[in-house]
From TrEMBL:
Belongs to the enoyl-CoA hydratase/isomerase family. It comes from Actinoplanes octamycinicus. Its EC number is 4.2.1.17. This is Enoyl-CoA hydratase. GO terms for biological process: fatty acid beta-oxidation. Pfam families: ECH_1. NCBIfam families: PRK07938.1. Keywords: Lipid metabolism, Lyase. It comes from the Bacteria.
Length: 241
């Protein structure tokens, strides 16, 4: 039948893949459409540029005199992360460079992660006056490490996550596209009906409702914005940049 049908979706928001509010919703729509296509057997999520994802576009948020961008980003992130999780076929994240903030939401909800040896994973939300995606980080690291990463904002390496079993494979950066596609092809060659039921079954036995858990976290981001702490942190981040 030739090459198995693999839908590749590529993050491409130069220079660092800081995704604007509308970009999160667009990503959710693309993933949902790929999964809804009965010909799709695997979705491969990758990125161009210096890193996989730097999270939300803070500069876009700072340009907004109100809260419209924050609200749109909150809803867009929730939709994109849920689209990965709810996709009826396995989603493989091919991660290189930095995977931060919203990138953790995408990778943490993916079924498998193949990473370049230069990949790092972190949740710097506290330094940016926000909270969220600890739900997804908790799927990648043990509880106390998750808390340490949230409080200190320090990242971990792909090698660290490989030792924990969260990253399926670590390869040299130049080999990442081929390695991720090779894993996708193994899965895509399986019986598609069985694979779709396997995804449904695995989601059904998850102990945490990732959608509800993440939306709970997002409420604190809005609270921090209303009391001024979020804006102070984002201004400080902008000044450091």
């Amino acid at each position: 039948m030739g090459e198995p049908p693999i839908a590749e979706i590529v993050l491409d928001f130069p220079p660092v893949n800081a995704v604007p509010a509308a970009g999160w919703q667009s990503l959710a729509d693309l993933i949902t459409a790929a999964g809804a296509d009965p010909a799709t057997r695997v979705v491969l999520l990758s990125a161009r540029g210096r890193g996989f994802c730097a999270g939300v576009d803070i500069k876009e948020m700072q340009r907004d005199p109100g809260h419209e961008v924050l609200l749109a980003a909150n809803r867009g992130c929730a939709a994109a992360f849920a689209a990965v999780y709810d996709c009826p076929v396995p989603v493989i994240a091919a991660v290189h460079g930095f995977c931060l903030g919203g990138g953790i939401g995408l990778a943490g909800n993916a079924d498998l992660i193949v990473a370049a040896d230069d990949a790092t994973f972190g949740l710097p939300e506290v330094d940016r006056g926000a909270l969220g995606a600890a739900t997804h980080l908790a799927r990648l690291v043990p509880p106390h490490l998750m808390r340490a990463m949230v409080y200190t904002c320090r990242p971990v390496t792909a090698a660290d996550l490989h030792r924990l079993g969260s990253v399926h494979q670590v390869v040299p950066a130049a080999e990442l596209p081929a390695a991720a596609r090779a894993v996708a092809e193994v899965i895509a060659a399986k019986d598609p009906v069985v694979i779709r039921r396997a995804k449904e079954a695995l989601n059904g036995i998850d102990p945490v409702d990732v959608r509800r858990s993440y939306r709970f976290e997002q409420g604190f981001t809005f609270e921090l914005t209303l009391d001024g702490a979020g804006d102070r942190a984002r201004r400080s981040f902008g000044e450091r940049r």
